[in-house]
Amino acid sequence: MPEMTSQMRQHRPVVGVIACGRTVEGEPAQAVKHRYLEAVERFADAIPLIIPTNQSADNAAYLVARLDAILLTGSNSNIAPRRYGSDTPAHLPNDDGRDDFGQVLIRAGMNSAKPIFGICRGLQEINVALGGTLRDLRHSIGADHHHAPDDASLEETFAFTHPVEVVANSTLFRFAEAERLVVNSVHFQAIDRLAKGLVANATGPEGIIEAVAATGSSAPVFAVQWHPEWRPEDRPHDLAFWHYLGEAARSSYMPAPGAETAA
């Protein structure tokens, strides 16, 4: 094996962070909340690069070739039910651009054996991309276990928690080193049918799947339903999420084809 050069040792991985469609000053725009970008830089020791979703699906493979990992963030938008074959009415807001590009980005990442991580909506996107389905919890028994009341402040929303049971010997168990965690919960959609190729790593109230990992993938595919980017400093399992993302992005690097490295 060739000797590793100082350039390779100093490589900081580049993590592509998917953007959401928003309206800014009356115009369509792309946005990512700072907390995701800051978590990639501070806790994964990686470089965040925003991936806009208002672009051709043909670009996905070219983008992935230049990234070391992909992060699918949470969002206030809901995945449209037609994306997973359901004719149930969609709950607003939706984000068609993210629905479209997110699916091709996930597939391109898996085809290129790049690590893919998901948070909240990101977990749901991965499940849908691999053939799974979702359901809306709004009118379900126990729905109030998964989201704070509508009139909660931002602080109260992200302080709203519930326990999850971690699957023994799962990916989550290996890096969180705990059988039970307390996680924040800010979601209305949830996995209904788990996609083939994914396994549950944790379950919460009402048996809702709270973390998943892919089986048989060349690079890690891992996602959680909660928000580890929200002030993780005092939660070891959330810091471990970011450390795992950073380690996965560095694995076998050697920078990704087409990536730039510092001298």
Q: Short description, anyone?
A:
The chain is 27% helix and 23% strand.
- CATH class bucket: Alpha Beta
CATH architecture: 3-Layer(aba) Sandwich
Low-confidence stretches: 1-9
What value does the average pLDDT take?
A: 88
What is the CA-CA span between the terminal residues?
A: 22 Å
The number of helical runs is 8
CATH topology: Rossmann fold
Explain what the structure shows:
With 263 residues, the protein is α/β, with parallel strands linked by helices. It has one domain: 3-Layer(aba) Sandwich (Rossmann fold). It is built from eight helices and 13 strands. It has a nine-stranded mixed β-sheet, sandwiched between helices. Strand 12 (209-214) and strand 13 form a beta hairpin. Helix 4 crosses helix 5. InterPro entries: Class_I_gatase-like, Peptidase_C26, PuuD-like. Keywords: Glutamine amidotransferase, Transferase. GO terms for molecular function: gamma-glutamyl-gamma-aminobutyrate hydrolase activity; transferase activity. This is Putative glutamine amidotransferase.
Name a few traits of the molecule:
disordered N terminus; 263 residues; alpha/beta; globular; 9-stranded mixed beta sheet; two-stranded antiparallel sheet; transferase; PuuD-like; Rossmann fold
Q: Which SSEs are present, and which pair or pack?
A:
Elements: H1 6-9, E1 14-18, E2 20-24, E3 27-31, H2 34-43, E4 47-51, H3 60-65, E5 69-72, H4 96-111, E6 116-119, H5 121-129, E7 134-136, H6 154-159, E8 161-166, H7 171-176, E9 180-184, E10 189-191, E11 198-203, E12 209-214, E13 221-224, H8 236-250
Parallel strand pairs: 1-4, 1-5, 5-6, 6-13
Antiparallel strand pairs: 2-3, 7-10, 8-9, 8-11, 11-12, 12-13
Helix pairs in contact: 4-5
Keywords: Glutamine amidotransferase, Transferase
InterPro entries: Class_I_gatase-like (IPR029062), Peptidase_C26 (IPR011697), PuuD-like (IPR044668)
GO molecular function, one term: gamma-glutamyl-gamma-aminobutyrate hydrolase activity
